[in-house]
Specification:
The complex is a heterodimer of chains A (about 350) and B (about 800).
Chain A lengths: L16 H11 L1 H11 L2 H23 L4 H5 L3 H12 L6 H16 L12 H12 L1 H4 L15 H10 L8 H5 L10 H10 L4 H4 L13 H17 L6 H20 L7 H6 L3 H8 L10 H21 L6 H18 L9 H4 L1
Helix pairs in contact in A: 1-5, 1-13, 2-13, 3-5, 3-6, 5-6, 5-7, 6-7, 7-18, 13-16, 14-16, 14-17, 17-18
Chain B lengths: L3 H6 L33 E4 L9 E2 L6 E2 L6 E2 L14 E10 L7 E9 L19 H10 L12 H5 L7 E6 L8 H24 L3 E7 L3 H10 L6 E6 L8 H9 L14 E5 H13 L5 E7 L7 E6 L4 H7 L11 E2 L6 E2 L13 E3 L25 H5 L6 H10 L2 H6 L10 H5 L6 H58 L4 H46 L4 H36 L13 H16 L2 H38 L2 H21 L1 H7 L9 H15 L4 H20 L3 H22 L1 H17 L5 H18 L4 H11 L1
Parallel strand pairs in B: 7-8, 7-10, 8-9, 11-15
Antiparallel strand pairs in B: 1-6, 2-4, 3-5, 5-6, 11-12, 13-14, 13-15
Helix pairs in contact in B: 4-5, 4-7, 10-13, 14-15, 14-17, 14-21, 15-16, 15-17, 15-24, 16-17, 16-20, 17-19, 17-22, 17-23, 17-24, 17-25, 18-19, 18-22, 19-20, 19-21, 22-23, 23-25
The chains are: A mainly alpha (about 350), B alpha/beta (about 800).
């Protein structure tokens, strides 16, 4: 006569956090593919390194905290963090960059704050910012697209560079990055920023080889890949629509206004959308539920704030890209946003509504 | 702006926030006819099946009841009667498990059917328009109808509302998965339901009647449309299927676009909502005079062979219904009363069907593998995805509620409007972290309710305490006031100079004297101890020097014991003082207490003199003197035991005769001394006068008192001090041996007089004497005697108060 007692509701739509995380990881595939296509194996190696380091770090901390290891280790959150970090690192950065970043993200930013669901900051972006500030040289050695390189870089070359700093032929990262014409190549955003300080107009800057035909050789396709993945997630309702939409709109509006005021010194709206980490940030970073706002209204504000910050830092800040900084600043603001965007409960404050 | 009705006619409805689309699973039962009621072996009828108070049971065990007979009546509007679902015998009235999430037990009537199903007499009323509204209300109330949709709110309360009703909403939404009870009732009995709606229309006269029904019930909608085709103010509102559109507040929002303000009933908005099953019951009650004794129950789930709707008598055990539907007894049995979203697990299958039971769910394990059971919880941390907030029909923030519930932050929970949660389960249904959110809320709600009860209790206690404090304060003030008035009146009377006044004056004087006496007591207690001890010490010092070693120390010990006794004696002294005061006051002469013993009388006499002198110092001194006088034999008696034992050795060793002679001499000497010295008399009285009766003793003392005219302590001591050695030196005229012998004899005499004073001590003494006589031999006698005297004296000094005990020890050990 053992009857089974359970609390209502008795049925459940049977989705799990881990499947949600897996879905997000799958959605990064188009972007990663574009990265591989234009920039080679570098980021894939970093993703692999970061994931391995993250799992080890997560395992260590979970066992120290006497938590159930299996369900938490494979809930996908640590892997997702590592994947996002690996994506955002410069392709030819040394191996320890991704390892340090990954361990920092998992052990410090996530687990020290109480693990999944308790971290106030996005672990991947916090780690990225830490690396950028601590190792500025390694973190700014962006590799130009393969098509612009003077030499052909294969998987073995990339591995050698990442682990030893030199290709088997003895070229350093700096040498790889140098154009045939003898100047060091950077990201489109970097190029634009440098050219601005040199007094060139935007139109002139757009002639640089790294920018290519549209908004940045390779970068536009990477962003398009992440946009695709993001739209897939939206269609699966794995992420809320409000954050990316408000973020992109906000960035669009800001850059549009700036472009209207001074087209010579401001990049176009689409340049902002399709360079740097815009799409990755919009669909994969800002939508992190743990460190974001919770209500629809709150998410709209959250995204809009992030868009504004990205534009401001790109335009006036010292760093060429700004998604990581903007995300961290918004993470800080999220509890406050939540506090002021509580929905009106049914049957309460009806006078205000009328 | 278009009116609500126009909008509804256009087929456009408002939306409530959130909502979910769980698998409906209604196909299991929705196309099968309702099976007719069968009578189980036993009916368990809970007395309370609704929200409100239980009625009073009016049947008793052994009663034969007819079908439809009332079993409990009610005296308050919030209580609802119950009826016998079939004819039979009441076999028990006891506490049984009732349908409740916590498996609660409450009083139930157990009815054993006789299978004849004999009806009570009924009065069929084909046209309810012939009845007055009051009669209809009475019929509804007497039929024991309470809301059959879920909560079980007493129907007559709902329909007797006085507010102007705009909308009567008939809830046929039935949004919970699996449940098709209302659907089938509409399919089969829409004319009766319509009769019920008409009765409600007649009672409430609403502007519009809206029937809310979800679009997934095509047959029921068709049946309803057919039944209501000719009535124009009834609108059938086919609403989109979404859970929980059948919630009262949600359905009101869907149909009218209005929100029911938190904490009020919908009737405040001019809205009354009734469930279709309730409408059917109302029609049955008013027209057929049939109380609510059966209802349609959906028995569904894939663990059943024949899931179907059944007419079930109220009180039918759930197990009876499931067996009727072919329940295969799987290992992990799980029965849910209600739907899968809001129903609750049953602890066993002997739980009865009650008026609010619309579904019994027997799911297979694959079908509903509840993530929220204690054994299979897959709960992980909340990742704040916000899906719960998206689906919450009350627009709460479930994830924040959950944080606060875990943290037991009750203030924050209330701020987040926890009590607006309708526990629909939508949040927990969608939660990817599989957190049993509703469970957390239920626990938190219970905790808050409990806390509030405690707060109310504490508040009441506080109020009571404050009231008491105020009352005491008031009484104190009143008392003081009264006393003041009385004193003033007395003063006024006293000043008049009449005889009464005089007596009052003297009474006051008495009182004053009493106060003084009390003060004197206090000072006696404090002073006498010191004085007597110091004086005794002095006396001892003086007496030791000239005296022979043994003798002086013996005397010394005696004096010391005496001094100690003074303190004890003070008590008697105080009593006598009081008595004296009473005697002196003429007003209280009738209450003169009887002086118990003669010694007390003596005290009295002395104190009288002291009182006459009227100086506190003199009082104190005379008291102590008095006490010394009183100390007499009682004080010395323990001491005597020692000495007696010592002296007895000698007495046996020496000739008995000699001892006797010596004793006689000692006695004589003592007598002589008594006559010559006043204060010494008291001291030496233990030798002589107490051998005789107590009366001469008192005489002696009185003599001494009168002769000395109550001398102070100093004098007494002064006289005593030389006299001690004097006595000793007198005895010393003989040789040393003789001296000790004589002294011993004297001591023996003392020991002999002991029985007069203290029975216990004398017993022990005599016994010790006998034993000593046997054991001790002549040779050691003198030296041993002296030594023993020494030892006895030392011990006596140290433990004067415990002398009796110590002497016993001494004598036995030696």
């Amino acid at each position: 006569m053992a009857f089974w007692i359970a609390s209502s509701p008795h049925n459940h739509q049977q989705n799990e956090t881990s499947s949600l995380m897996r879905l997000v990881i799958y959605a990064t595939i188009p972007g990663i593919f574009a990265q591989w296509y234009f920039f080679g194996w570098g980021n894939l190696i970093h993703i692999f390194l970061a994931v391995a380091a993250a799992i080890i770090a997560e395992f260590t901390v979970l066992s120290l905290r006497n938590k159930k290891i299996k369900p938490q280790l494979f809930d996908g959150s640590a892997i997702l963090t590592a994947v996002l970090l690996g994506i955002s690192l410069p392709a030819l950065a040394p191996w320890w960059i991704s390892v340090i970043g990954s361990v920092f993200a998992i052990a410090l930013v996530k687990q020290l704050y109480g693990g999944l669901g308790h971290n106030p900051f996005n672990p991947a972006m916090a780690a990225y910012v830490m690396l950028l500030i601590s190792f500025p040289l390694q973190m700014t050695q962006w590799q130009p697209p393969l098509s612009l390189l003077a030499m052909d870089i294969q998987l073995t070359d990339t591995l050698a560079v990442i682990f030893s700093g030199y290709t088997p032929q003895g070229y350093s990262v700096e040498q790889i990055r140098t154009h045939i014409d003898g100047f060091t190549m950077a990201t489109p955003l970097d190029t634009l920023k440098t050219n601005m300080t040199l007094g060139l107009t935007v139109v002139e800057s757009m002639q640089a080889p790294t920018i290519g035909k549209h908004f940045g050789l390779g970068w536009e396709w990477i962003n398009a890949g992440f946009l695709l993945g993001g739209l897939f997630l939206l269609s699966k309702k794995a992420i809320p629509w409000s954050t990316p939409v408000s973020f992109l709109l906000s960035l669009f509006v800001c850059s549009f206004i700036a472009f209207m005021i001074s087209p010579d010194s401001n990049a176009s709206t689409m340049f902002h959308w399709f360079t740097g980490a815009t799409m990755l940030g919009a669909f994969f970073i800002l939508t992190d539920p743990v460190s974001g706002a919770t209500s629809v209204k709150g998410r709209l504000i959250f995204g809009a704030l992030a868009g504004l910050l990205v534009f401001l830092i790109r335009k006036f800040g010292g760093y060429p890209d700004a998604v990581a900084f903007a995300v961290l600043l918004c993470n800080m603001a999220a509890p406050l946003i939540d506090q002021y965007t509580r929905p009106r409960t049914y049957g309460h404050d009806l006078g205000v509504k009328k | 702006m278009e009116s609500v009705i126009e909008r509804i006619k256009r087929g456009s409805f408002s939306q409530f926030h959130g909502g979910i689309h769980p698998p409906e699973q209604k196909f299991l039962t929705c196309s099968k006819p309702i099976a007719s009621a069968q009578i189980p072996e036993q009916l368990i009828i809970p007395i309370r099946q609704h929200i409100g108070q239980a009625g009073n049971v009016i049947v008793k065990v052994g009663d034969k009841v007819l079908k439809g007979q009332i079993l409990s009546d009610c005296d308050s509007p919030m209580s609802v009667p119950i009826h016998a679902p079939t004819s039979g015998t009441i076999t028990a009235i006891k506490s049984m498990a009732i349908p409740h999430p916590s498996g609660l037990s409450e009083a139930c009537i157990i009815l054993t059917p006789d299978d004849e199903d004999t009806w009570k007499q009924r009065h069929i009323c084909p046209d309810f328009h012939l009845l007055s509204k009051t009669q209809i209300l009475e019929k509804i109330a007497n039929a024991g109808i309470s809301g059959m949709g879920g909560a079980g709110f007493p129907t007559q309360v709902k329909v007797s509302t006085l507010t102007k009703i705009n909308y009567l909403i008939i809830n046929a939404a039935e949004c919970e998965p699996y449940i098709t009870a209302d659907d089938l009732l509409l399919q089969e009995h829409s004319p009766t339901i319509l009769d019920g709606i008409k009765i409600l229309d007649h009672l409430l006269t609403p502007k519009n009647i809206l029937i809310g029904i979800e679009e997934n019930k095509a047959k029921a909608i068709a049946a309803l449309k057919k039944a209501t085709a000719d009535i124009d103010h009834i609108d059938i509102c086919v609403i989109p299927t979404k859970y929980p559109s059948g919630g009262e507040k949600q359905l009101i929002q869907i149909l009218t676009g209005q929100e029911v303000p938190s904490g009020v009933l919908p009737s405040s908005l001019g809205i009354v909502m009734q469930n279709v099953a309730t409408c059917f019951a109302i029609a049955d009650a008013v027209i057929n005079d049939t109380p609510l004794i059966k209802r349609v129950v959906t028995v569904s789930g894939q663990a059943l062979e024949k899931p179907q709707n059944i007419w079930a008598l109220i009180g039918t055990p759930v197990g009876f219904l499931t067996s009727q539907c072919g329940y295969n007894n799987s290992q992990n049995r799980h029965l849910i009363m209600g739907g899968p979203m809001m129903g609750f697990s049953l602890p066993h299958d002997q739980i009865p069907v009650i008026k609010t039971t619309n579904c019994i769910l027997a799911p297979s394990e694959i079908e509903i593998a509840s993530p929220f059971s204690s054994t299979s919880s897959k709960e992980v941390e909340c990742i704040r995805c916000g899906q719960c907030a998206d689906v919450c029909p009350a627009q709460l923030l479930p994830q924040e509620l959950q944080w606060s519930a875990k943290a037991k932050d009750q203030a924050q929970l209330e701020k987040l409007n926890l009590f607006d949660c309708i526990e629909c389960g939508a949040c927990a249904y969608v939660c990817p972290s599989q957190i049993p959110l509703v469970h957390y809320y239920r626990v938190a709600k219970a905790e808050i309710r409990q806390q509030k009860l405690l707060d109310i209790k504490a508040e009441k206690a506080k109020v009571r305490f404050e009231a008491r404090k105020q009352r005491l304060e008031r009484e104190k003030v009143a008392r003081v006031e009264k006393h003041k008035k009385a004193a003033e009146a007395r003063k006024a009377r006293m000043n008049t100079g009449t005889s009464a006044a005089k007596s009052e004056k003297s009474a006051v004087a008495d009182a004053l004297a009493r106060v003084k006496a009390k003060k004197a007591q206090a000072s006696i207690k404090q002073n006498t101890a010191e004085i007597s001890i110091t004086s005794t010490l002095e006396m001892t010092a003086e007496s030791v020097a000239p005296a022979d070693d043994s003798k002086s120390q013996v005397a010394n010990a005696i004096a010391r014991a005496k001094a100690k006794k003074i303190v004890q004696k003070n008590q008697a002294q105080i009593e006598s003082l009081d008595t004296l005061q009473n005697n002196e006051s003429p007003s209280s002469s009738q209450a003169a207490p009887v002086v118990i013993d003669k010694k007390a009388k003596l005290d009295l006499a002395i104190t009288k003199k002291t009182a006459n002198e009227n100086t506190p110092q003199a009082e104190t001194i005379s008291d102590s003197a008095n006490a010394q006088v009183d100390a007499t034999t009682k004080v010395v008696s323990p001491e005597v035991v020692n000495l007696a034992s010592v002296s007895d050795e000698k007495a046996t060793q020496a000739l008995n005769k000699k001892a006797k002679v010596a004793a006689a001499i000692a006695k004589a000497k003592a007598k002589a001394k008594t006559k010559t010295t006043a204060s010494l008399a008291a001291e030496t009285a233990f030798d002589s006068s107490q051998l005789s009766t107590t009366s001469p003793n008192i005489d002696v003392m009185q003599d001494s008192n009168t002769a000395a005219q109550v001398k102070n302590v100093a004098e007494a001591i002064a006289k005593k001090t030389p006299s001690g050695p004097q006595m000793v030196s007198n005895i010393d005229t003989a040789d040393r041996d003789q001296k000790t012998k004589i002294a011993a004899a004297a001591e023996k005499a003392k020991a002999k007089e002991l029985p007069l004073k203290s029975q216990q001590i004398s017993n022990s003494t005599s016994s010790s004497i006998k034993s000593e006589q046997d054991s001790m031999r002549a040779t050691q006698a003198d030296i041993a005697a002296i030594k023993k005297a020494h030892v006895a004296a030392v011990v006596a000094k140290a433990k004067a108060k415990k002398l009796a005990a110590s002497s016993n020890k001494l004598t036995t050990s030696e």
